[in-house]
Amino acid sequence: MSVSLFLNPCLNCNLPPIPFLCLPFAPIKELVKLRMSETSGPAFGGRRALPRNASNAAEDDLPTVELQGGPVPRGVNLQGRYPQENKGTYIPVPIVPELQRGKWGAKVIMRENRSVRLSIQSSPECIVGKFRMYVAVWTPYGILRTSRNPETDTYILFNPWCEEDAVYLDGDKEREEYVLNDIGVIFYGDFNDIKSRSWSYGQFEDGILDACLYVMDKAQMDLSGRGNPIKVSRVGSAMVNAKDDEGVLVGSWDNIYAYGVPPSAWTGSVDILLEYQSTKSPVRYGQCWVFAGVFNTFLRCLGIPARVITNYFSAHDNDANLQMDIFLEEDGNVNSKLTKDSVWNYHCWNEAWMTRPDLPVGFGGWQAVDSTPQENSDGMYRCGPASVQAIKHGHICFQFDAPFVFAEVNSDLIYITAKKDGTHVVETVDTTHIGKLIVTKEVGGDGIKDITDTYKFQEGQEEERLALETALMYGAKKPLNIEGILKPRSDVDMNFDVENAVLGRDFKLTITFQNNSPRRYTLLAYLSGNIVFYTGVSKTEFKKETFEVTLEPLSFKREEVLIRAGEYMGQLLEQAYLHFFVTARVNESKDILAKQKSTVLTIPQLIIKVRGAKMVGSDMVVTVEFTNPLKETLRNVWIHLDGPGVIKPMRKMFREIQPSATIQWEEVCRPWVSGPRKLIASMTSDSLRHVRCHTVA
Fold first, then answer.
1. Residue 556 contacts by C-beta under 8 Å, 6 or more apart in sequence?
2. Coiled-coil segments, which residues (predicted)?
3. Is-catalytic flag, 288?
């Protein structure tokens, strides 16, 4: 006789049953049993009678025969493995006449000769991971059990199609985007010059699910907690970075990437996760969008709906007072010793969709989770999950790490003059700079979806100020008291614009001064141009210029400053960010004017060409092409190529590319997945990075 088993996630799930086993047996009393693979561990003292079950990988063989009251067969070691029914690591699945909502059960759906077909329903609260499955038969003499067969191992994931699951997401288009889509778009650049890069999540690629389970094993996460998306996402946010736990990725923001891959060279998560699992060591290197891309793969692979978020002008609040304090010298220059907070040009994190039974009603849904190592949370570098709805309303008392996320999107930028006598004077307060724009990829397309209003009320509205006051009430460190010491508005306004800048070319910066009074004023202005990391941290000053301005009553004046390519080219960082800070002192009133802006140089792109039939199983030729537009030779050039379902991740090195020279790389591939597919390429060299391109295959 044989039995065929079908696994149904739950009664309310719209997914079809999945066949996964056909085994012969002689039924007397049948019971399907699932045991989660666990590892042996050392004995623990104190109250814990058994070792922690914190690995889904290691296993011991079980006997095929257990005689009633008899000895354990020779060679079988049942010591050290402790699957337990009350922990969810040992699941007897009874054969029942009718399946019951929310419970494990197996129902006979077909009998034919010596064959029986069963439909198995899992519990929506089941542990996520890899289970070994057996069919056990009770006889008067003991238990007969099927032999260990890796082909019948069963992976159980979170199920956003099941209404009873903690990650249930309504809407087919949303599930298609946030769970099933294996290619995404991550936005970066500047608020005034938004750029995008395609990213291969590859959650369905061979080995990725096992790699994600290994991440939880590496964290020594108890198996019993792996059915809770709150715990899983929090562990994931810690493990995707290697700051303190030998996690997946080593972060590097110093532009030195020896013995590793520059962050801009990665085209997706697959290579990173597979290398981490195979080497058992952290992969080098990542920055925020790489951490977010890999974390998105981890979440989607386990069945948790997830998306990558980009916040433009993202605050890093080091002292937890919910404001960015920029200290100035009396001459208007930034005091780097006193200024501890920083403003990132952009920052990427993730959102994961889940219920929050640990919070009051209304705070479920999208949760902010961040794996970029910025601040310590409960002894580890991790962040979230923090309810986005709670952040919007200033309810930062709810776990986890809501104050830090709130400050990233909704703190005030305050310019303070530190006088030589030790006193501080607030020059100006900018309530609109931080969290200028928060975006993600749109559902079903590659365009931008503005989600700023999910994190904060519109700037200037009473609700927005009320949310800030609520956040301050809930235990944030006391901010600097600016009431009564804020200087009155100056009669002179100052602003500046940066011309569209192309890598390797000169460009102009134009400063405008406006006198709004009938008085005549003279000003001493200072321009500082800096090579900066996208985190807002300055590497070096490449431009310094001081000039005097005379303003007649009710007039304006423009000053143009030429930025030459030779001034910045030799010192550029990975993402070609330039930051300009302009300060001016009005001699007559002693007012200080200050403005800062960043610009991203336009970088040349790769070209991808495709020849041949775009059909599954047919050969297709992919060509990657690049022409060096610079006046210098590019050396140690690496090109990375990726395309989920089309071509496996690969890379090729070119020793050098002369000025104006063109290189080509051609590969033949055979697509194995139908539907819309993308090819993604990136290029990095000693002096030019962040060169990218994607095309529809």
1. 512, 513, 514, 515
2. none
3. yes
Give 648-653 contacts, CB < 8 A, sequence gap 24+: 649/200, 649/267, 649/268, 649/270, 649/271, 651/265
Residue 138 has pLDDT above 50, yes or no: yes
What's the pLDDT tens digit per position in 600-611? 888 889 999 999
pLDDT at position 678 is: 94
Strand runs (DSSP E) across 68-122, as ranges? 90-93, 105-112, 115-121
Catalytic residue among 162, 182, 301, 347: 347
Please provide the distance, in angstroms rounded to a whole number, between the alpha carbons at the two ends of the chain. Answer: 48
Instruction: Give the strand pairing for 412-418 and 2-8.
Output: unpaired
Q: Decide if 370 is catalytic.
A: yes
341, 370, 401, 491: which is the annotated catalytic residue?
370
Kindly report the number of other CB atoms within 10 A of residue 656's CB atom: 14
CB 111 within 8 Å of CB 92: no
Map tokens 């069919």 to a residue: 135
Q: Which of 126, 162, 288, 383 is catalytic?
A: 288
The encoded tokens of residue 528 equal 């500082």
Structure tokens at 272: 């990173």
Residue type, 284: R
Positions at the binding site for Ca(2+):
410, 412, 459, 464
* 338 close to 352: Cβ distance less than 8 angstroms: no
- What stretch of H or E contains 454? helix 452-455
Task: Examine the residue annotation and report whether 347 is marked as an active-site residue of this protein.
Answer: yes
Across the range 626-634, mean pLDDT stands at 92
pTM of the model: 0.87
